[in-house]
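**User:**
If convenient, please work through this fold.
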Amino acid sequence: MQMEHVTDSVAIYSDGTNLQVIHDLGTEFVLDFKLEKEPTFNIDVLGKTDYAYHLKPFFSVSGFCSKGEADLHRLRWAILQFQEFEQYLADNQAEMLEWYFNPKGETE
């Protein structure tokens, strides 16, 4: 099991089978990522399609968030944490993809 701290409030955790985003922002906030696969073409081998992978972060509010000052502050804080998470994934894309495809961290 391995954990990578992104911020004080957000971490990425591996249980050995997959990666999960854990946070303490509140249950109404969903902060996660998904694997996106795009076809790539090599002009030297036209009949074969390869794929480029990247992790795309996403954020949503799944519950009620009132317009009260405290809830708006929590929403702003969650958005700031998402921006840091998004930047972390962009900066560490290669390492995160390697971890995504090998969550146990096994070496050959």
User: Anything to note?
Assistant: The helical segments are 69-91, 93-101. The chain is about 30% helix and 40% strand. Residues 2 and 14 are 5 Å apart (CA to CA). The longest strand covers residues 45-61.
